[in-house]
Design goal:
- By secondary structure, the chain is an alpha+beta fold.
- The protein has one domain (2-187): endopeptidase fold (from Nostoc punctiforme), CATH 3.90.1720.
- The chain is 36% helix and 26% strand.
- The protein contains six helices and eight strands, in the order E-H-E-E-E-H-E-H-E-H-E-H-E-H.
- The strands form three sheets. A four-stranded antiparallel beta sheet has the order 2-1-5-8. It has a two-stranded antiparallel ribbon with strand order 3-4. It has a two-stranded parallel sheet with strand order 6-7.
- Helix 4 (108-116) links the parallel strand 6 and strand 7.
- The longest helix is centred in the last third of the chain and has 18 residues, at 170-187.
Length: 195
Amino acid sequence: MRSIFILLTRSQTIASRVIHMVTDAQYTHSSLSFEEDMQEMYSFGRKYTHLVLPAGFRIESLHRGFYKAYNQIPCALYEFQISDESYDRARAIVDEMVGMMPRYSYSLLGLLYCRLGLAVDRGNKYFCSEFIAEVLDKSGAMEMPCVPSLMRPIDFASLPGGVKRYEGTVGDLLEQILAEAAAEPEAEGILPISV
C-alpha cells in the first residue's frame, strides 16, 4: 500500500471568495501530492502568485510560490492509502499530463456547470477537484461518489478511507513537515546534513 495526499485550502483571493460565497464550502481549492513532504503538488489553478488569471495545470508546493506568500490561509491535509498498482497508475497519469502541460487549461465554465449539477466533460479543461477525481478514478485508486466534473474540493474530506492528518494554517503545516523531516535522521541515528 502507498499513500497519496490531498490538501484542501481556502485563500482570501477574489476567486476563492466567489467560490466560497457560491458554495459555502469550508475549502475551495484542492491539490494532489504523492509525497508526504508536499514538495510537489498537482492541481489546476493560478499560474502566477499574485494573478488569478491565467490559470491552468500547475505544480504547486508548500515550500514556494503562492503557499509561501500566503502561508496563513486555512487548510486540511488528508491521507489515503491506495494499492501500489493504483499509485503507479495515478503517478503515470499525472506524469503524462506534466509532459503535456501547455495542452491543459483551467475550466471556469466547468465550475459553473458543477454548481448547477451538470456533468460535462470539457476535454483538456479542468478545475482542481475535477482533475484530482479523474486521476483517482482512472487509476482505480478509489471510487468517486459522483463523476469527476461534479466533485468539489470539500467532497474529498468525506471520502471513505481518508485520514485527516492536519488542520490549521498552511504555514503551520509546513513547519510541522519540516520538523518531522529534521527529526527523522536523528531517529535513525544519522546526523542531519547542514546546508
